[in-house]
Amino acid sequence: MIPVALFAAGCATAEPTPIFAQASTKPAAGTVPMAEAAAPSGAPFVAADGRNLRACADGTCEVLVRTGDQVPNDGGAGPLSVAVQAGKVGLAPASGGMGEAVSGPAGMAHQINRQLIVILAVQDGEGIIRLSKK
Questions:
Q1: Which H helix or E strand runs over 89?
Q2: Model pTM score
């Protein structure tokens, strides 16, 4: 598995910030639990745009992602690197520069700038995410 990390610019020592930070009891700002959750067990695990990650280039899509994927995105959050681990999908800026990493299980929503990212489902090392503009 490839760890995905962010590095803070301008610090005396670069400390990586993992996508999958330890869970807290209080959601971070911009993170909102959603009522829309994963498909029931046995339901087809499909996304509207399938594995066509290029469908996200305009900032609006629903795709199936796996660890190591690079999702092009011009919707506000910028291009995203993907990690799927322990029933969560993690997304971080693909540039590796400063930016907000987000992660969560199915049903979580995150807003970065004018970009809304919803984790629709997670199953067997794959996740379905939906990107939209606000």
A1: strand 88-93
A2: 0.70
